[in-house]
Amino acid sequence: MDDPLLWLALRDTPGLQRFRARELLARYGSPEAIYGRPPSELRALCSHRSARALAHGPDLTSARTELARARKLGLRILLPCQRDFPPLLREIPDPPLVLYQRGEFPAGPVLSVVGSRRPTARGRETARAFAEHLADSGVVIVSGLAYGIDAAAHQGALDAGGATLAVLASGLDRASPAGNRRLAARILGQGGGWLSEYPPGETARAHHFPERNRLISGLSPMSLIVEARERSGSLWTARHAAEQGRDVAVIPGPIDTDHCRGSNRLLYDGAIPILDADELLWHVLPAALRAPIPRPVAPRVAGDAGRVLRLLHEGTQDPDRLSRELALPAARLASILLELELEGLVVREGTRVALNPRARNARGAE
User: Fold this and answer.
1) For the chain, what is the mean pLDDT?
2) Is the pTM above the cut of 0.85?
3) Minimal CA–CA distance to 96: which of 171, 170, 21, 194?
4) pLDDT digits (tens, 9 = 90+) for 242-280
């Protein structure tokens, strides 16, 4: 079941699309169980050409060559059936059949950071500083090693003494783009790694980049977008993240520049606005490790609004419960909650309300 030769042969089956291979695996459980079945049975899940090839049995010639080359280069091959396969990637709609890894996959909470290949100086420094702050708190930064924002995010993580993971659109025999090979070497030297679904020797092609971006988003519960033009490849990462059920966060930018038009549009469509690195850290860290975000002392809120805040300090609340416990009419409570939300003291979480993590020092006056 975990023989890499069979997985490589399945991936390279003539005419077999990745989503068809996934359907076959869901039906039969493993590549070994697929091979040798009657073509008439397999045709229900794949093309005639693929069914004939699978029924004939695996062609291991090229798979053996590829496996030998990967091992000579010191690459690890990760399979979905193995424990060390990234667990979050198993959950995405279109997981890779085979992954290649060079170096280490750092442990810890993960944040994906992507953005423009031609950012402003502001965008580049913001990405670097945010990544440095998060890496200093133990967060693993994932990005694509591209010029611009990707490189700045990797750099920030390394400057903090942290580890970072680069997901490439080419084989791992050499890092691409060539101009970032020194940065790529530093990633390996500092305990990080490279990851790709493409075999050694494969060059980066145009269609590889949107495919690669689904892995960047898939490796993390949240993707942070820093400066993206309207047709930026970073928007593919955001689109993949949304399809994967992951959060998309954006650092807002000026509305009068093309550099941020795509990323600002994501905010309009519901992405999470991020205003500082501490707020981002609160989103990324597991709940057990979250600390209150330090803020200037907020004024104490009096009257009915203060009573509402005191109850919200106990945790997220249902408005109906608030109304009953405080003996407030629903209309009056709705008005109070709207005022508190506009002041940035509470946030909506679906049909419930909670204290804004940016304002947890706000208290209701006795």
Assistant:
1) 88
2) no
3) 21
4) 999 999 999 999 888 888 999 999 998 899 999 888 888
Q: How far apart are alpha carbons 214 and 236 in whole angstroms?
A: 8
Fill in the amino acid letter for 89.
L
Dihedral-angle region of residue 29 (phi above 0 means left; psi in -120 to 50 means alpha; beta otherwise): left
Q: What is the DSSP string of 96-140?
A: -S-EEEEE----S-EEEEEE-SS--HHHHHHHHHHHHHHHHTTPE
Cβ-in-10-Å burial (0-12, 13-18, 19+) of 160 comes to buried
Pairing relation of β-strands 193-196 and 222-226?
unpaired
Per residue in 97-115, pLDDT (tens digit) is: 999 999 999 889 999 999 9
Tokens of 204: 């980066």
Beta-carbon contacts of residue 331 (< 8 Å; ≥ 6 apart): none
- CATH code at 303-359: 1.10.10.10
CA-to-CA distance for 221 and 248, rounded, in angstroms? 9
Task: Please tell me whether residue 78 adopts helix, strand or coil conformation.
Answer: strand
Q: Which two tokens stand for residue 40?
A: 């008439």
- Those residues of the chain that have pLDDT short of 70 are 1, 286-301, 350, 357-366
Q: Give the SS3 label for residue 92.
A: coil
Domain ranges of the chain: 1-72, 103-289, 303-359
CATH top class, domain 1-72: mainly alpha
Q: Name the token pair of 64.
A: 């053996």
Pick the CATH number of 103-289 from 3.40.50.150, 3.30.70.890, 3.40.50.450, 1.10.540.10: 3.40.50.450
**Integer CA distances (angstroms), 113 to 147, 179, 217, 310, in order:** 13, 19, 9, 36
- Pairing of the two strands 99-103 and 110-115: unpaired
What is the pLDDT, as a whole number, of residue 330?
86
Q: In this predicted structure, what is the pLDDT of residue 366? A: 46
Q: At a CB cut-off of 8 Å and minimum separation 6, what does 61 contact?
A: none
DSSP string, 348-363: EETTEEEE-GGGTT--
Distance in angstroms (rounded) separating the CA atoms of residues 97 and 78: 9
The residue count of the chain comes to 366
Q: How far apart are CA 141 and CA 145, in angstroms?
A: 11
Q: Tell the residue number behind the tokens 């170096």, with chain if given.
A: 103
Q: Are 168 and 212 in contact, with CB atoms under 8 Å apart?
A: yes
